[in-house]
């Protein structure tokens, strides 16, 4: 007797897997949408599909993130490829995209730079909503850039990608906006060995120092690569807003402030370069 959708979902639930995660994994293993699973729970599945699903369940129960198991994650209403080479997109980063879009004209040409692009969720989301935007994205990781390039192709968003240690590959190029979600977790933070973070690339999570190392570098180099009146916006840790504002002010930025995410945590800080 072949296993059915209902059988497999029930078995995974008995092992403690949430129903939504079980249906996502079954969709990945079988090609059956979650809607179809719910509508026709009596659907029979081949033994090979059932075994693939059970293996995915075992890996999930061992802690592997669902996003890596299925290779996809939604962000800003778009679906992105993800892999262990890049961070898993998180909802709080949508605040950074929203703030950036507010500062980019809708119907006029403009330019933006994303530093440490990872899977490319930020530049792809910006380019998708600003068709005249000249978008440039940098990352030090070749494997991350490969994922980002595939995501740009998936969403038909022309973006220039390059391998670079922050601003190193840019020369004298300037932009209307610079955005970044850099590694900002301090070395030794206990969260690094908990939950999904255990499986994500360590170099994309932590700077190996106090959590502000890369933020300092981004702020220090921004003036050289911003147009007069251009904005710098970056994501940071839950307790780094005050330090980030102080660094921006010390570097001469104006209109410095921090913005809170939906959890009321100051998650993004930024400032504007003085107009000439």
TrEMBL record:
<feature type="binding site">
    <location>
        <begin position="181"/>
        <end position="184"/>
    </location>
    <ligand>
        <name>substrate</name>
    </ligand>
</feature>
<protein>
    <recommendedName>
        <fullName>Release factor glutamine methyltransferase</fullName>
        <ecNumber>2.1.1.297</ecNumber>
    </recommendedName>
</protein>
<dbReference type="GO" id="GO:0032259">
    <property type="term" value="P:methylation"/>
</dbReference>
<dbReference type="InterPro" id="IPR050320">
    <property type="entry name" value="N5-glutamine_MTase"/>
</dbReference>
<dbReference type="InterPro" id="IPR007848">
    <property type="entry name" value="Small_mtfrase_dom"/>
</dbReference>
<dbReference type="GO" id="GO:0003676">
    <property type="term" value="F:nucleic acid binding"/>
</dbReference>
<dbReference type="GO" id="GO:0102559">
    <property type="term" value="F:peptide chain release factor N(5)-glutamine methyltransferase activity"/>
</dbReference>
<keyword id="KW-0949">S-adenosyl-L-methionine</keyword>
<feature type="binding site">
    <location>
        <position position="139"/>
    </location>
    <ligand>
        <name>S-adenosyl-L-methionine</name>
    </ligand>
</feature>
<dbReference type="InterPro" id="IPR002052">
    <property type="entry name" value="DNA_methylase_N6_adenine_CS"/>
</dbReference>
<comment type="similarity">
    <text>Belongs to the protein N5-glutamine methyltransferase family. PrmC subfamily.</text>
</comment>
<feature type="domain" description="Methyltransferase small">
    <location>
        <begin position="99"/>
        <end position="187"/>
    </location>
</feature>
<dbReference type="InterPro" id="IPR040758">
    <property type="entry name" value="PrmC_N"/>
</dbReference>
<feature type="binding site">
    <location>
        <begin position="116"/>
        <end position="120"/>
    </location>
    <ligand>
        <name>S-adenosyl-L-methionine</name>
    </ligand>
</feature>
<dbReference type="InterPro" id="IPR019874">
    <property type="entry name" value="RF_methyltr_PrmC"/>
</dbReference>
<keyword id="KW-0808">Transferase</keyword>
<feature type="binding site">
    <location>
        <position position="181"/>
    </location>
    <ligand>
        <name>S-adenosyl-L-methionine</name>
    </ligand>
</feature>
<dbReference type="Pfam" id="PF17827">
    <property type="entry name" value="PrmC_N"/>
</dbReference>
<dbReference type="InterPro" id="IPR004556">
    <property type="entry name" value="HemK-like"/>
</dbReference>
<comment type="function">
    <text>Methylates the class 1 translation termination release factors RF1/PrfA and RF2/PrfB on the glutamine residue of the universally conserved GGQ motif.</text>
</comment>
<feature type="binding site">
    <location>
        <position position="166"/>
    </location>
    <ligand>
        <name>S-adenosyl-L-methionine</name>
    </ligand>
</feature>
<dbReference type="Pfam" id="PF05175">
    <property type="entry name" value="MTS"/>
</dbReference>
<feature type="domain" description="Release factor glutamine methyltransferase N-terminal">
    <location>
        <begin position="14"/>
        <end position="71"/>
    </location>
</feature>
<keyword id="KW-0489">Methyltransferase</keyword>
<dbReference type="InterPro" id="IPR029063">
    <property type="entry name" value="SAM-dependent_MTases_sf"/>
</dbReference>
């Amino acid at each position: 007797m072949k296993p059915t959708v209902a059988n497999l979902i029930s078995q995974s639930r008995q092992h403690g897997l949430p129903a939504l995660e079980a249906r996502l994994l079954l969709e990945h293993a079988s090609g059956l949408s979650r809607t179809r699973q719910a509508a026709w729970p009596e659907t029979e599945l081949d033994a090979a599909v059932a075994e693939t699903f059970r293996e995915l369940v075992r890996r999930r129960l061992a802690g592997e993130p669902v996003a890596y198991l299925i290779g996809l994650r939604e962000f800003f209403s778009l679906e992105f490829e993800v892999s262990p080479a890049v961070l898993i997109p998180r909802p709080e980063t949508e605040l950074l995209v929203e703030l950036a879009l507010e500062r980019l004209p809708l119907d006029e040409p403009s330019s933006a730079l994303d530093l440490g692009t990872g899977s490319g969720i930020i530049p792809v989301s910006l380019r998708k909503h600003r068709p005249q935007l000249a978008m440039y994205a940098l990352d030090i990781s070749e494997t991350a850039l490969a994922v980002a390039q595939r995501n740009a192709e998936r969403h038909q968003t022309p973006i220039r990608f390059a391998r670079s240690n922050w601003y190193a590959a840019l020369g004298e190029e300037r932009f209307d906006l610079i955005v970044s979600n850099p590694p900002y977790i301090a070395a030794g933070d206990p969260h690094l060995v908990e939950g999904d973070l255990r499986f994500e690339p360590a170099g994309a999570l932590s700077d190996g120092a106090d959590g502000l190392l890369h933020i300092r570098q981004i702020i220090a180099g921004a003036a050289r690569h911003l147009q007069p009146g251009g904005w710098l916006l970056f994501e940071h840790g839950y307790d780094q807003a005050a330090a980030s504002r102080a660094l921006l002010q010390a570097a001469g930025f104006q209109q410095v402030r921090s913005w809170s995410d939906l959890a009321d945590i100051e998650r993004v800080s930024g400032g504007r370069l003085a107009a000439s």
